[in-house]
Amino acid sequence: MEKRTRDIFFEIHKGLPREGPGRNDYTRRAFEILPKLDKPRILDIGCGPGGPTMELARLSGGSVIGLDNHQSYLDVLEEKIRKAGLSERIKAVNGSMFTMDFPEESFDIIWAEGSIYIIGFKRGLKDWRKFIKPQGFLVVHEMTWLKSDPPNEIADYWKRMYPGITTIPKNLEIIPRCSYDVLGHFPLPEDAWWEEYYHPLEERINQLRAKYKENPETLRTLNSEQEEIDLYRKYSAWYGSVFYVMQKL
Ligand SMILES: C[S@@+](CC[C@H](N)C(=O)[O-])C[C@H]1O[C@@H](n2cnc3c(N)ncnc32)[C@H](O)[C@@H]1O
Q1: For residue 5, what pLDDT is reported?
Q2: DSSP 3-state of 218
Q3: What residue ranges define each of the domains in the chain, with the CATH number in brackets?
């Protein structure tokens, strides 16, 4: 992404409750598919401002590292950790999911809400596996076709934006080939897209439209963010982000 586009992207996204679809209840629902673990060590990859990171610390009673490569999101997470008095158990780490150098087999659970697409579903499953303890867990939610024959407009959009998007049955085939079992899967319901993500994002886009009304380049970026929201409004029956709860074999 070019610098000016990046700057406006972060101005649009700064301070939003989440950086992707999700809600604490669904983080909890996925967590409850796992067997009971005693104070697990968890890595939350692409944690953004840390919605899931904080919830995982509360749910597990264990320790959580939130990893992201964008410092202003980590600053928000650090503030949440400080306010909750959880600095003994939660750390915000600036690093890339492509170059992680944690000791092998050091996490009971790797968690990634809406971020594995950055490295790709299959590559993430393969590359991250070594950091998970034997019989440990990988939990992600990933953009997925909910029906196999999407209309051209939305199929073309996602082919351009994320060529790796595929169906639930295809992802369920990939998982055992990468040496994991599937313990469960479920799509995030539509409220997980609207309440803490698209509604606040849309409000921000409208505020910035007024501020940048004389700036065509910025307006183009705002329009492309709005396009994603409009397409979800129109085609939400066809795609969504699906939680896959996996155990390392
Ligand atoms: C769709 S957001 C999901 C954020 C968060 N999990 C949530 O549910 O709110 C993807 C996140 O991945 C982060 N990211 C992008 N590239 C990354 C990389 N190479 N390594 C680590 N994080 C990255 C972004 O900064 C962003 O916070």
Answers
A1: 83
A2: helix
A3: 19-146+162-189+237-248 (3.40.50.150)
